[in-house]
Amino acid sequence: MKVFVTGGAGYIGSVCVEELLDAGHAVTVFDNLSEGHRSAVDARASFVLGDLGDRELVGRAVAEAQAEAVIHFAAHALVGESMQNPGKYFRNNVAHGLNLLEAAVTAKVGKFVFSSTCATYGVPEKMPMDESLPQRPVNPYGESKLMFEKMLQWYQQIHGLEFVAFRYFNAAGASRKFGEHHRIETHLIPNVLKVALGQKDRCDIFGTDYPTPDGTCIRDYIHIVDLAQAHILALAPGQAGFFNLGNGSGYSVREVIQTCERISGRAIQTVEQPRRPGDPPRLVAAADKALKQLGWQPKFPQLEDIVATAWDWHLRHPDGYRD
Ligand code: UFG
Description:
Blueprint: E1 2-6, H1 11-22, E2 26-31, E3 46-49, H2 55-64, E4 69-72, H3 79-84, H4 86-106, E5 111-117, H5 140-159, E6 163-168, E7 170-172, H6 188-196, E8 203-206, E9 218-219, E10 221-223, H7 224-234, E11 241-245, E12 251-252, H8 253-264, E13 270-273, E14 282-283, H9 288-294, H10 303-316
Parallel strand pairs: 1-2, 1-4, 2-3, 4-5, 5-6, 6-11, 7-10, 8-13, 9-14
Antiparallel strand pairs: 9-12
Helix pairs in contact: 1-7, 2-4, 4-5, 6-8, 6-10, 8-10
The structure holds uridine-5'-diphosphate-4-deoxy-4-fluoro-alpha-D-galactose (UFG).
């Protein structure tokens, strides 16, 4: 299938592009390289440098790629930043995303796969979280993704656009080739591994007074190769709807740090900080729907394995991508 991938130079996108190509699909990557890296784009893919805000260019690029499916990763995705600069999130994730949606309808694309997030649920009433929970985001990032989910539903109803929206829990780990390199790193696992590599003195623990057993936030970490595989399954005709992607196991910030210490064999110095605004205490997925309906089978459900692949990549790329 001819697949048009926005954000294919980014962390999750780069690995999905690699898996799509391995599965025999033809891929065009569209990315403005604001967060992504040119060298994170698999050499077998075509590359278009462009911004989703450029409506005409987006339309032309989707048409020229003769896209049969669009996978839309490109977005700003930091909870903390969205609490300081909400406009950046609504502009890029909603308004610019709309240009892509319209381009997909005009080009009669058969399938639209969207990267949504468990941050659309806000602070959930029930754990683990299934897809039927009410969506009440507690940060502009989650709100911007929920707005796009709603646009997808209207475009399906009015234009017949078939879509799959994945609500990711916490993406982590690396493939052999591609891993996590954000220019400003805010995520837990890469920050802890920077301490293990000697690139940072200590790692912050944001909030130690949450209503959890050790007082730190609990998250469900999911390997990016497993995330990528779900996207490939979503391309099958007839697959549609909203799916959580997580492993169903929650780990606290302290447990993640301990796992990184075990895997790297290095001590991690930490410093306790106040809570980070916008962080829900606990997010753990019930992903039964993806397991049953898509036939999704995560290969790396254990946190140890997820951290081990991340550590292996960071050891081989201590400075990340060089561009
Ligand atoms: N944390 C620390 N120290 C750090 C970094 C993070 O204690 O140096 C804590 C955070 O406060 C949070 C947890 O570790 O409690 C995980 O934080 P991340 O920044 O790694 O991930 P988030 O859960 O905030 O967000 C990520 C993605 C979002 C996605 C979300 C789903 O960035 O795009 O997972 O849970 F929506």
